[in-house]
Amino acid sequence: IYARINMFCNLQKQKHQKTKPRILGPMTVFNETFLFHLPERVIWDCAVLISIYEMHPSSRLLVGQAVLGKQGPMKDHWDRMMQAIQQPVAEWHPLLI
Fold first, then answer.
1. Paired sense of beta strands 2-9 and 46-56, if any
2. Using CA atoms, how far apart are residues 77 and 93, in angstroms rounded to an integer?
3. What pLDDT is stored for residue 38 in this prediction?
4. Do 31 and 22 meet the contact criterion of CB atoms below 8 Å apart?
5. pLDDT tens across 37-83, in order?
6. pTM for this entry
7. Pairing relation of β-strands 46-56 and 59-69?
8. Does the pLDDT at position 86 exceed 80?
9. Is residue 63 exposed (0-12), middle (13-18) or buried (19+ Cβ within 10 Å)?
10. What is the 3-state secondary structure (H, E, C) of the chain?
């Protein structure tokens, strides 16, 4: 499995990055750092969509997703990321299916 991280600003996809593939287990951990360089004037209108995919020889299967942004249940994590620019901020999040 792998994670794909998409950065959206004003509902437009700006950038994306992917993790290295991992073996699926009961608790697979993606402990990687991702930096997105965006103009400060747009950062507050952005959100991060994290999608977990299971790889197959000819396709991929969406396992679940989590959204980080200035609104919603992940707001505290978002605020910590905005205060600690270029510093790792880690937190567990449930995947929505």
1. antiparallel
2. 10
3. 80
4. no
5. 887 777 878 899 999 999 988 999 999 999 988 887 788 888 888 88
6. 0.84
7. antiparallel
8. no
9. middle
10. CEEEEEEEECCEEEEEEECCCCCCCCCCCCCCCCCCCCCHHHHCCEEEEEEEEEEECCEEEEEEEEEEECCCCCHHHHHHHHHCCCCCCCCCCCCEC
Give the burial class of 3: count Cβ atoms within 10 A of its Cβ; 0-12 exposed, 13-18 middle, 19 or more buried: buried
Amino acid making up residue 44: W
- Beta carbons of 1 and 24 less than 8 angstroms apart: yes
Mention every residue, 6+ apart, whose C-beta is less than 8 A from residue 15: 6, 7, 36, 38
Q: Which pair of tokens denotes residue 8?
A: 């959206």
Sign of torsion over alpha carbons 87, 42, 73, 33: negative
